[in-house]
Amino acid sequence: MDAFGDMIRGVRAQGSLFGSSTLTPPWSLHFVDGAPLTLCAVLGGGGWVVPEGHPPESLRPGDTVIVRGPGTFTFVDEVGTRATPVACGEFCTAPEEGGTRHRRGWHDPGDAGAAGATTLVVGAYPVRGEISGRLLDALPTVLRVDSGGGGDPVLEHLAAEVATDTPGQQVVLDRLLDWLLVCSIRTWFDRPGGEPPAWYAAQRDPVVGDALRLLHAEPAAAWTVSSLAGRAGVSRATLAKRFVDLVGEPPLTYLTRWRMTLAADRLVEQESATLTEVAHAVGYSDAFGFSTAFKRTRGVSPSEYRRTTRSPGPATASGRP
Questions:
Q1: Model pLDDT, residue 107
Q2: Structural domains in the chain, sorted by start
Q3: How many beta carbons lie within 10 A of that of residue 283, not counting itself?
Q4: Among residues 48, 107, 172, 243, which one has the fewest Cβ atoms lying within 10 Å of its Cβ?
C-alpha cells in the first residue's frame, strides 16, 4: 500500500450515477447535493461547469472535471444561458423541464446524436473519515483533466456501457467511475508545473518512496529511523535528511500523524473497540501511551474524540438521476 492508495481507498462509487443524461441547448443543471466530491465526465458535446464562488470552466468532449464540496455547482450549455436552472439532487427533472432530458435507465437511443447534444455522466462521492479527508485537503475546488489525459480509455468504456442495458450494469459503471476518479487525480498531480502534495511527490523518490510504502504497509511496526533506513537500504542520516527535504517533516513525525489518522477513523467506525485495541492496532503497547500521543497530536483525548465525532454510518454514495 502506498500513501495515495491508502488515502483514496475510502472514496468509492456505489450506485453513484446520475443517469447518463443527454442535454439539448439551452440547459442548466444545478447540482445541489454539495457532495464532498463530484465527478463529471463529458462523453459527447460540451458545456461549462460553474462552481459556487469560482470562475466557470469550459468542458469539451472527453474532458473530466472533479468538483470539491461542500459548495454546489451548475453545469450549463453556455455561460449566461437563458435556461432556467433545474435542481439535480434527490429527484430527476421531468423531460419537459428546461429543455433537458433525463432518464433513469441507461439506453435512450436517438437523443445522443441530436444537433448540439451533450452526453454527461456524473458520480457523487462520499469522502468518509480522516484518511480520505487528507486526500480531499490536497485537491482544489475544481480539478479539470483535458481530453487526452490518463482517463481516456475509461471514458471509452463508459460510453460503451451506458449505450446498452445489461445485467450488472450499475456495478460496472461504479467501477469505471472509481477508475476514472483515480486516473483523473493522478493526472492532475502529475501534470507539468503541478504542485502535488509532498507525500504524493515523494513517492517517486527511490529512497523516500520506499520508506513511505513501508510506513503505510506496516504502520503498527516498531519503527525507528535506523530500522526504516535499513529496510530502505540507506544510512540513517541519508534517510532522515531526504525525508525531511521531500516530505517536510521527519519520518517518525509523519508516522505518528498517520497513526493518529488511522486511530481517529477506528475510534469512530469501530465503536465497540477498546482504547487498548485501537492502541495496539496503530503500534502502541498500551492505551496510556496512545492516549498521550493522540491528545498531543489532536488536542483532545481519544475518548473525547469518539464522543464528539459522529459516526458516518455505512459508506454509500448518492446516485440519483
A1: 41
A2: 3-190 (2.60.120.10), 201-308 (1.10.10.60)
A3: 21
A4: 107
- Please name the residue ranges forming H helices in the chain: 3-8, 129-137, 152-162, 169-190, 198-201, 208-217, 225-232, 236-247, 251-269, 275-281, 287-298, 302-308
Q: What length does the chain have? A: 321
| 9-30 b/e (C-beta count within 10 Å ≥ 16 → b) | ebbbbbebbbbbbbbbbbbbbb
- Mind listing the pLDDT tens digit for each residue in 104-125? 444 444 454 556 678 888 887 8
Note the pTM of the prediction, 2 decimals.
0.82
Helix (H) or strand (E) holding 116: none
- The phi, psi pair for 313, rounded to 5°, reads 75, -165
3-class DSSP assignment, residue 55: coil
- The residues of the chain scoring below 70 in pLDDT are 13-22, 89-116, 149-151, 310-321
In the numeric block, the cell 517533516 is attached to 249
Cell of 86: 433545474
208, 244, 213: which is closest to 229 by C-alpha? 208
Rounded to 5°, the CA angle 318-199-258 comes to 75
Q: What count of other Cβ atoms lies within 10 Å of the Cβ of residue 312?
A: 15
- The CB-based long-range contact list for 55-62 (8 Å cut-off, 24+ gap) reads 57/142, 57/144, 59/144, 60/146, 60/147, 61/147, 62/146, 62/147, 62/148, 62/152, 62/155
Q: Which residues on neighbouring strands pair with residue 120, listed in sequence order?
A: 21, 42
